[in-house]
Specification:
CATH architecture: 3-Layer(aba) Sandwich
Helix content: 25-40%
Structural class: alpha+beta
Radius of gyration: 15 Å
CATH class: Alpha Beta
Oligomer: single chain
Number of strands: 10
Number of domains: 1
Distance between the termini: 27 Å
CATH topology: D-Maltodextrin-Binding Protein, domain 2
Strand order of the largest sheet: 1-2-3-4-5
Number of helices: 5
Length: 168
């Protein structure tokens, strides 16, 4: 995928993510809504984890955290309908934005993985935080995203697993 985000004075204001394989263009401008091609998108309305479909990515840059990451996978896997691994964090976040996924988490992403899709997700009504539930996701790369409704449930499981290992 191709991902372009624009930040002005510390605020993300524009996000564009293109998937050439599916010819899908996700885009959003702050306070202007989120779109997939020309259609407005919104996050899912799933309220319970047992019917939620989550996405994740494997921590290939921090392989020393693989064991604890696997614990987070196991903790969430036992509670949700399914977990997918697509390959692009930016697309995973956009899939949360359009309701294909209900939530997402990944460890140690880079700003270019997150920034554009963060604008799209937030404009679609979603929520994105670091592992502590804070707003330092671009700095830490430790990312939890959701439709907002199930966010606290995912965050609690991630906090429990990563507490003392990854602070944010």
């Amino acid at each position: 995928s191709v991902s372009i985000g624009l930040q002005i004075h510390g605020q993300l204001v524009l996000g564009v993510v293109y998937d050439p394989n599916r010819d899908e263009l996700f885009h959003a401008v702050k306070d202007g809504g989120a779109f997939l091609n020309q259609h407005k998108i919104k996050v899912s309305t799933v309220e319970k984890l047992d019917v939620a479909l989550l996405a994740t990515g494997y921590p290939f840059r921090v392989k020393h955290h693989l064991e604890v990451y696997q614990r987070s996978f196991n903790a969430l896997f036992m509670q949700v309908s399914g977990i997918r691994r697509a390959g692009s964090a930016a697309l995973d976040l956009c899939y949360v934005a359009c309701g294909r996924f209900d939530g997402f988490w990944e460890l140690d992403l880079r700003p270019w993985d997150i920034a554009a899709a963060q604008v799209i997700l937030e404009e679609a009504g979603g929520m994105i935080t670091d592992f502590s539930g804070g707003d330092q996701v671009l700095l830490t790369g430790n990312t939890i995203a959701s439709n907002g409704i199930i966010h606290s449930k995912i965050t609690q499981d991630i906090k429990n697993v990563f507490s003392g290992i990854v602070d944010r």
